[in-house]
Amino acid sequence: MAAESAGIPSVSIVCEGFEGQAAATARGHGYDGLPLAVTIGHVDAQSYEEMVANFVGRTVDLVIKGLTASADAVIESNDEPAALDIVASGSIDEINQAFIDRGWTEGHPIVPPTRDRVEAYLADSGHDPWKTVGVATSSGRDVTIWSIAVNAVMAGCRAEHLPVLIALAEILVDPSYGAEHSGNTTGADAQIILSGPNIDALGFNHGAGALREGAHANTAVARWLRLYQRNVLGFTADQHDKATFGNASRIVLAEDMGCLNEIGWAPLSADLGAPTSSDAVVLARLNSGTIIGSVFGSEPEEIVAYLGNGIARTAAWDLTHVYGLGHDQFQPLLVLSPILARTFANAGWSKADVQAALFEHARIPAITFERMIGQWSNLTAGRRRLKELADSGQLPEVYGESDDPDRLVPVATRPERFLIAVAGDPNRTNAYAFSNDGPHGWWTAHSIDHTPASDLVCSIGGDCAT
C-alpha cells in the first residue's frame, strides 16, 4: 500500500489461505483490488529447496501477472444490503436460520434486528443513527451508531449499554488499537475490561465467576463485540479470521471498584490513561491464560513469587513482542482476587510496588527466552543472544548482565509493563495471568460517555430537525 500510494506498481506476496484477508485489508485502507501473489504451503514447514521450487513454479507468474494486468480488471462488486433493506422475513426460526446461513451470527440464536427494535433501542439516546464513529480499516465499512445498535439488538444488550458499545467502537477504529490485526493465526481474542462508578448499576458482575457466562451485561456486551467484529469488521473465516484454533468469546471482565476504592488503587483504565473517576473500557487481545490457584500467605513477600511464576509460565512465543515482532511491547495482565489485592495494600504496597516485585519474580532462564523468540518459533531473525542485544542497546541492561545461559531474565522489559486488575470472588485467594499479543490489539482505554447525545436527530425516513 505504501508503494501504491507513492505511484509505484506493486504486488503483495501472501501465504496460501490469506488471499481473502489481504484483499479485505487493502479494501479497508482504500486500495480495493490490490494485486496479490500467493506462496504455496507454509514457509516454516518447507525445506529451502521446496520453498524455492514452489516460488519459481507458481508465485513468480502471479507476480508478473499482477504487475502487468490492467488495474481496472480487479474490482469486486458490492452486493451487501443497505442499512434499511429487508434481508429476511418469516418466523423466528426462519430468520435465525437465514442469519446463520449468511454467516451473520456466531451460531447462537439472535434477537431479530427489526427496524422497529433498532429504532426503539436508540429512541432515548439522542444519537443520530447515521452518525459515523469512524471507518473499519479491516473492511472499509463505516462504523455507525445504526450498525452498533443493530448488533446490540442481536446480542440482547440493553439500551443503557449503548454508551459502553460506542466506547468499544471508538477503540475498534482507533489506529493505536489496530483492529485489522485481530485475526492472526495464533488466535488471540479481545478482552473487554470495564471499570468506573456505574458498573454495578449497569448490571456487570465483578465477583465470583467474573469471567463466566451468567451475568447478562457481561455476556451480552461481550457477544456484541464478537458479532460486530464479524458483521462490520469482516472477521469471518473467508476474510480476516485466520485463527488456527481460536477461543470462545471472552466475557467482559468488570473490576471490583469497591475494593479498589477501599485500598486506594486506581483501576486498570486509569493506568492506561483514562480519567480515574469516570467509567471507562479497556480493550486488548490476549493469548494464553493461566489460573494461579490457592495462593498461600498473609504477607506480600509470601505470595508475590507464586504470582510472578504464574505470569512467567504463561509467556511463551509471545515474548517476541519483547524483541522480534515488536520491541518493548509485551504487557501481561495479572487479575488479582480482592483478598490478594488487600494483602498487598494492608502491608502498605502500592500497585507500583507490586509491579516492581513482579518484574523481579516473573523471570525465566535466558536460554529458554532465546529459544522462545528465535529457535522454537521463527519470528525473530538471526537467533541472536540476549546479551548481544543488550550490549548493542536493543534490550535493557538487565538482559545482558552475564553470559550464563541459565541466568534468569524478566519476561517484560520494565515494571510498569506488568498490568494489574482486581476482580473475582472476594473470599478466594486465586489469580489469573494472561499473556498479550503486543501490537496485534494494543492495550487501549476509552472513557464512556453516559450523557444523552445532542446530535442532529433524524427520523429513520430522512426527515431531520435540530
Unreliable stretches, pLDDT < 50, 5 or more residues? 73-77
Summarize the biggest pleated sheet. 7 strands, mixed
How many helices? The count is 15
Rg value: 24 Å
Characterize the overall form: flat
| Counted beta strands | 15
How helix-rich are the residues, as a percent range?
A: 25-40%
* Class computed from helices, strands and strand pairing: alpha+beta
Q: Give the CA-CA distance, first to last residue.
A: 41 Å
What's the SSE pattern?
A: HEHEHHHEEHHEHEHHEHEHHEHHEEEEEE
Q: Kindly report the average pLDDT value.
A: 91
Strand content: 5-15%
Structure description:
With 466 residues, the protein is α+β, with helices and mostly antiparallel strands. It is 33% helix and 14% strand. It has a domain at 2-73. It contains 15 helices and 15 strands. The model is unreliable at 73-77 (pLDDT under 50).
Strand-helix topology:
Elements: H1 2-5, E1 12-15, H2 19-28, E2 36-39, H3 48-68, H4 92-101, H5 115-122, E3 132-135, E4 142-144, H6 145-155, H7 162-172, E5 189-195, H8 216-231, E6 253-254, H9 257-263, H10 268-271, E7 280-292, H11 300-314, E8 333-336, H12 338-346, H13 351-361, E9 363-365, H14 366-374, H15 386-391, E10 408-410, E11 419-422, E12 431-436, E13 444-447, E14 457-458, E15 464-465
Parallel strand pairs: 1-2, 5-6, 8-11
Antiparallel strand pairs: 3-4, 5-7, 7-12, 7-13, 8-12, 9-10, 14-15
Helix pairs in contact: 5-6, 6-7, 6-8, 11-13
How would you summarize this macromolecular structure in one to three sentences?
The protein has 466 residues and is α+β, with helices and mostly antiparallel strands. 33% of the residues lie in helices and 14% in strands. It has a domain at 2-73.
